[in-house]
Amino acid sequence: MPGFEPTVTDDTPAPPSAPLPESESRDFRCGECSATMTWDPDAGALACAFCGGTEAVDSGERVIVEYALDDVGSAARGLGLEMRASRCDNCGATVAFDEAATAQLCVFCGSSSVLEQEARRNAIRPESLVPLDVGRADVEKAFRKWTRGLWFRPNALKRLERFDAVGVYLPFWTFDCGVRSDWTAQAGYHYWESETYWEDGKMKSRQVQKTRWEFAAGARDDAFDDLLVLASTGVDAGLVARLGGFNTNGLVAYRPEYLAGWAAEEYRVDLQEAWGQGQERVVAIQEGRCSGDVPGDTQRVLLVRNRIRDVRWKHVLLPLWSLTYELGGETYPVLVNGQNGRVVGKAPVSWVKILLLVLVIAALIAGGVRVSRYA
Ligand SMILES: [Zn+2]
Ligand SMILES: [Zn+2]
């Protein structure tokens, strides 16, 4: 693909549409007392921790732009506010922190081998984000409920005192595209035939299912909107998948205000690699759709040829809370969806509890058998 090269040097001219060039990095000061303000998920506004003053964030003034695949140069750069970054030696995640926040431990894996470094200034700026909407108190409540719901987990987990979740924006790429899929296949139609056979010296007949194969072909047009590809290396992709969908209707134009006081992971999967993954998903989805279009009762040798067009991309941030807890020398990650509060996490299994349950079930079955025998 000519001209498709996500690494761009700093001398790329800023497009006229970019509202906040990288040079305008700033922090947010309270109008009342000039203390630093941070984004408050509960208030849905910037809030001052010192005097309690709040300030609305203007979310409606800018259109969210989706870029053509060969147009990387016109995307704005940097996050638009002063941030430090820490890179984790263990999981490889680089997380940018607002000056107001701290990072002694990796927010994703809990490792203490984090090195402070410059936030990447020429990284593509997020085009939009879903503002962090679930506050710390609600996250803790959801987490406690989650631990209570773990049937087979050790009691130590339920007693877990420490709660040090970090609100962090996770990097994603989204893709829109159109796709035309032409397919051919052999469609199978079942029918029944009677068949005679010999049994005990007598001729008998029975019905046997056969399949008639016919050539079939078709075409379909589909559109993809906001296909999300995770650009993080810090989180467990399986956990993120279990977090369930983020509602991309909640996306607003990016403003650095939403990151004030919070962390944001820098993308590690670049645009080209992400589109590779996006394309694989499009191809797999189209194959399933075409398979559904093949007539008949069964099918074989489905061949699909996809022509993908009008690819548009944008870089987005989606909010979550990340925490880790330690148990028996192991660290386990837990994620909370920052849009709807859903909790997913890894937890150790308590073999003692499982063994007890198995014994109880065995006893019940044995008891049940005895009861039915005498019934
Ligand atoms: Zn104030
Ligand atoms: Zn880490």
Top keywords for this entry?
375 residues; alpha+beta; 12-stranded mixed sheet; 3-stranded antiparallel sheet; 15 strands; 19% helix; flat; disordered N terminus; binds zinc ion
Helices and strands, in N-to-C order?
EEEEEEEEHHEEHEEHEEEH
Largest sheet: 12 strands, mixed
Low-confidence stretches: 1-23
Q: For the CA atoms, what is the radius of gyration? A: 28 Å
- Ligand set: zinc ion
Beta content comes to 35-45%
Helical residues, percent: 10-25%
Supply the helix-strand structural class: alpha+beta
Number of helices: 5
What is the average of the pLDDT values?
84
Distance between the termini: 76 Å
Number of strands: 15
Taken from the alpha-carbon principal axes, the silhouette is: flat
Question: What is the secondary structure topology, with strand pairs?
Answer:
Layout: E1 37-40, E2 45-48, E3 54-55, E4 67-68, E5 83-88, E6 94-98, E7 114-118, E8 128-129, H1 136-148, H2 155-158, E9 166-199, E10 202-230, H3 237-242, E11 252-253, E12 263-265, H4 271-293, E13 298-327, E14 330-337, E15 343-345, H5 351-374
Parallel strand pairs: 8-13, 9-12
Antiparallel strand pairs: 1-2, 2-3, 4-13, 5-6, 5-7, 6-12, 8-11, 9-10, 9-13, 13-14, 14-15
Bound molecules: zinc ion (2 copies).
